[in-house]
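In this section we walk through a basic example: taking a raw amino acid sequence and producing a predicted 3D structure, encoded as discrete structure tokens. The instruction is simple. Fold the sequence below.
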Amino acid sequence: MSERQVRPMTKLEPQQQHEVWLRAVELAGGKVPTGRIVKDIVQKIMERILVPNTYQIGKVCQILSKDNPELRGKGGCWAIVSAVNDLSCSM
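The resulting token sequence is shown next.
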């Protein structure tokens, strides 16, 4: 492991660090993962931890497609929230 691979994980608890590393190795095809792979996984975890879902049913908002293939091509479109989940909303 290099510093580039380990540094992003320092923001997480030890159990989360272990899970990130296992996932990163899996994504790297069983090889030592790149720092970018580790950083991307940590970023996704941090987004879930730091951003509470504050939307309410009936609220108008813009769609953020992020990594969701079902929303490809719809990013930036306006929608009305029909259901609120822990980490997402239905439109």
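Looking at the output, two observations stand out. The helical segments are 3-6, 14-27, 35-50. The chain has two domains: 3-50, 60-90. In the next section we compare this with other chains.
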